[in-house]
Structures are given as C-alpha cells and as structure tokens.
Design a protein that fits this description.
Blueprint lengths: L2 H8 L3 H17 L4 E5 L2 E6 L2 E8 L4 E5 L11 E2 L6 E5 L7 H13 L19
Antiparallel strand pairs: 1-2, 2-3, 3-4, 4-6, 5-6
Length: 129
C-alpha cells in the first residue's frame, strides 16, 4: 500500500481504519495495473488517468465509490450523483463482502465512462469500455 494511502487510513478510528485497510489491500490486489493516489483528499485508483474506484470517510461510515458503478447492474450498489457513479457504505469491516468487492472491481476495469475528459466535453460522459 502506498505511504500516502496508509497515512490516510492511519488517521482514522480503529474500525474505519480496518475497513479502509481491507479495501485498499483488495483494490491493490485486484487492480494491480491501476495508479493510486490521494485525489481531492481521498484515496482513488485510476486506469489510464480515468478514476475507477475510491473510498472516503463520511460522518457515520466509509463510502466505497465506483465512478462507473451505475453501469455494473448490481443491486447492492446505490446510485450516487448525477453521472454514472454508484456507492456502498460500510460501518464495520465484517460488512465488506470480498466476493462482491472483487466482482465490482473486475467490472470497474471493464466498464468505464470517461471521467478524465468530462470537463473538456462540458459535462457529457462517453463510454470507454
């Protein structure tokens, strides 16, 4: 795990840190070609400069966000925002279903909307994969 991601996780309370450590390890393992960094103050993974998945600490939970998640056809993921993002929130590490997480990460690599160029296209998303 990158130092900056571990530093983000280390500042969290014990249960939230456990959730984030598990998410980061799993994302790193499943998306080994992805670049990851702290982006807009939260850990985010990118493929070819396009944001794919990230997580953030909210007031009462940890949110795992897939930028193209609305296209995954997954009931467990909830729509987020006006574009194609979908999320799931966790309050305990036991809530993280690794089988689901790995499936979502595989879909994230294969189903992508072009967020990298959204500003250039004046808010219009185009499907990459």
């Amino acid at each position: 795990m990158k130092t900056e991601i571990q530093d983000y996780n280390n500042q969290l309370l014990t249960e939230d840190k456990a959730i984030c450590d598990l998410l980061a390890r799993t994302i790193d393992a499943e998306l080994s070609d992805a670049e990851n960094k702290i982006w807009h103050a939260h850990p985010v993974w990118f493929l070819d400069g396009n944001p794919i998945v990230g997580y953030s600490k909210l007031k009462n939970s940890v949110r795992l966000l897939f930028w193209s998640g609305q296209s995954f056809d997954e009931e467990t993921l909830q729509n987020e925002g006006k574009f194609k993002a979908a999320e799931i929130r966790y309050t305990a590490v036991e809530e993280v279903n690794i089988v689901n997480l790995k499936r979502w990460l595989a879909k994230a690599a294969h189903i992508q909307w072009d967020y990298k160029n959204i500003v250039k296209r004046k808010g219009r998303l185009e499907r990459l994969k």
